[in-house]
Amino acid sequence: MDYRPHYPMPLRALSAIIDFCLVLGGVSIVALVFTNALLRGAAGFDLAWSLEVTAFLLLWTTFLGAAAAMARGAHMRVTEIVENLVPQRARAWLALVIDLIILAMLASLIWYGVSIASHSWAQKTTVLYWPVGLLYASMPVGMACALAFHLFNLVRDWQYPAGWAQNDSDGGAAL
Questions:
Q1: Domain count, the chain
Q2: How does DSSP assign 63-84, residue by residue?
Q3: What percent of the chain shows pLDDT beyond 70?
Q4: What is the pTM of this model?
């Protein structure tokens, strides 16, 4: 279920900004890797900084992509066990327990991500001398965005449990 049409304006704007960053990051990764491979093969040299920039972009697009998937309700789930073994009345409570576990996991990833990023901020990368903490900051930033989306999704699912089950397809979701 794509939750984005139901978001308030600040969450819709955040989702749009993340989507733009993902497109920009993905295109940049492809362009950098292609250009560097072309230069290495045709001219015999490579752009030393391209590896560092590509690593930064890959990490940031990975964690922002997780947040974008959370906004779309697109994370993988296996529902066969719940549908076949859990009574109908208990499914809403099981979903709530799972959502609370996800909240705890996101909060711990934010907490430890901030710790790792702050402890490594003084270290510099080899070529560009960027703070290594900037690389590790991708996890708490991406997980904080995912947490914001998940909190809204959790409240929305709890308020309208039957409506979401009937409309749980991505057929009409905007890319």
A1: 1
A2: HHHHHHHHHHT-S----HHHHH
A3: 92
A4: 0.86
